[in-house]
Amino acid sequence: MKKFAEASKQTLKFIFLLVLVISSFCYAMFQGGFVSWFLFGSFLPIALYCFALFFYPVKKIQIQREINKYEFQAGEQVVVNLTFSRTNHFPIFFCLIEDDISINFKEKYGSSLKFLLFPLFKKQWTYTYQLEQIPRGEYEFKGHRVVIGDPFGLVRKGFYVSDEDKILVYPAFINMTYEPFENQFELGMTATKDKVQRDSTMAISVREYVPGDKFSWIHWKQSAKKNEIMTKEFEQRQSHDVMLVLDRTPHPNFELSVVFTASIIRAVLKKGAQVGLVSMGDRAEYFPMKSGNFQLRTLNYHLAQVEDDASIEFSKMLELEQTFKNQHSLIFFIVNQLTLQVVEKISSLSVRRGHLVLFVVKGKNEKLNNEQLELIDLARKRGIVTRVIYEGAFAKAFDRG
């Protein structure tokens, strides 16, 4: 139906242009004189160009998109080159291009990708545009919409060509050092700045090699089988492994929570410990604890796509979640808004005292009201290590004091 309407519109324009030419000729014939013929002679080249444009094979214009790379960190610049080519020098006064990209990009970036070019007689030309401060997400380029026309808007011809590309924008992160809080471990034990301490007398599994692992930990047989360096996983003397719980309740500071979560993941894996994630949104998504670069990519891919789309309260989701039962690792809860129900639900978990950590993520200039301060004090009294983390101070999340 849409194609029929467009074809009808073009036919009417063609008829209108033909009527204009005939009318101007008739006017010159019956009126006579220099002025009338001058008007007809001036309009005739424009009319001939418009007629030629009607029959110009616009779909033969070829477009190729090149992107500088396909994986980014949030905040980076994306450079896109559009190369146009055709087989003749027919003058094209203007060329309106729209790079068709997924709707989520338009919602986050706030604008569509439309550009006005003036190729004129060129057979090949290139247009380069940059996307500054690209937000996290997965975006799909679907194709190009092209419209050409004459200087007076009498004729417009367009077409759509598919040209699929996809870019993935991982969340930004802050470099931080993961140092477990002293009161998270048994009496008399303190955190160490070295890699996770393990009992090297009892290997319980194997994993991918992580920079900093000892040479003696390499499992040669498994390395030969998998054609990559595998390391023995020993029983831990101290539990440095972390299970992150991300609250995806809709909130203006949700992007800060994602950045903070991505930063902790990198810090924990760099420490040599394992990290897992429970992403609690419209549906809970669980990623078991693992280590290595593959786990980093897996969790970052999820964080690139995640949205604050929870439809029920965080405290109720905690009540339904079974992941925390018999959990011996550290559990980090990352929230933007603290409520009494959340504090009560977290404190009711049957986890050893000191192994529950609650991070409340706030904007740079936000201030806590009396109710929030009372809830933080209540959480600490119930054995939950509670910290308010402000934007710009994420690197200090594990500082003592």
From TrEMBL:
Query: Record's InterPro entries?
Result: DUF58
**Is rRNA-binding there in the keyword field?**
no
Keyword field contains Membrane: yes
Membrane-crossing residues? 12-30, 36-56
Q: Do you know which Pfam families this protein is assigned to?
A: DUF58 (PF01882)
Domain (DUF58): residue spans on this chain: 205-378
Q: Which domain of life is it from?
A: Bacteria
Q: Keyword annotations for this protein? A: Membrane, Transmembrane, Transmembrane helix
Q: Which PANTHER family match?
A: DUF58 DOMAIN-CONTAINING PROTEIN, SLR1927 PROTEIN-RELATED
Q: What is this protein called?
A: DUF58 domain-containing protein
